[in-house]
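Sanity check

After download, print the first record. It should look like this:
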Amino acid sequence: MAWRCTGLSWPQGARMAVLRWEGGRVSPLVPGKSIGFRAEGIRSCVGARGTACPLFTEVAGHLTQARCADCARLERAHSVAADTLADDPRTYRVYLAWFGPGLVKVGITGEERGSARLLEQGAIVFSWLGRGPLMAARRAEELLRGAFGVPDRIPYAAKRAVRASLPDSARERATEVEELHRRAVDLGLWDETLEPLGCEIVDHTEVFALQGLPAPATAVRELVDGGAVAGTLVAVAGPDLHLRTAGGSAVVLDTRLLPGWSLIGANALAGVSVPTTSTSTGGGDDTLQDGLF
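Expected structure tokens:
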């Protein structure tokens, strides 16, 4: 029986990610669990905003968004990430997130989502900076980018490259976020329209199961018809599954590559028989922000 994945998610309040499937089933992603599947047929567009793609257009395997061009435009037509909801009445939070040495970003997320956005991105450490209306949060984000050169996005390839060599000390992991928070507070200029929030460090190292993580040599570039991915789950960070194959190799699978495929079970001994790329050059397509606010 073929299954169709709708993506990985971090349920609010949970300390474990799940894979979601069409029909409503979920698969908890427990480190130590054996995972194996084989792709069948072609990868087809998943549609947009709850509506199926009328043409079931074939989608390239390397894309991290399983949508054709028309459905992608429709999906982003009312997107905070695309700045098409300037009058959004919800409260937003500005956060500072750390993914490894030198990899700090500023971003915003809807307050009702809690820390889900940070888990989805694979943030190792984060702290809130402020809360308030959408456009005030956007202004604060832009101000920090301009004043300190802090990006609002870090490619997943860069995150994967350092994930297995993070500092062991929680104190050291928190340092860059604490310093940026202090500088942002000293800068001011944004706190007249946002309610400032104190620096309270949240560390996801344990949640992601990154202690002792083996450095992966490769990342899955794309699935192909008949290609298998199988191994033992070692860690989950953001959308990434870190697997150890039966042969002992460490590989990363970006689960954003799964939607659109029909998947059947595969024995753990199947290993990885899909195209891969070196983790030093990255895996998957990071050109689009998925906008999961």
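If your output differs, re-run the checksum step. Summary of this record's structure: The chain is about 20% helix and 25% strand.
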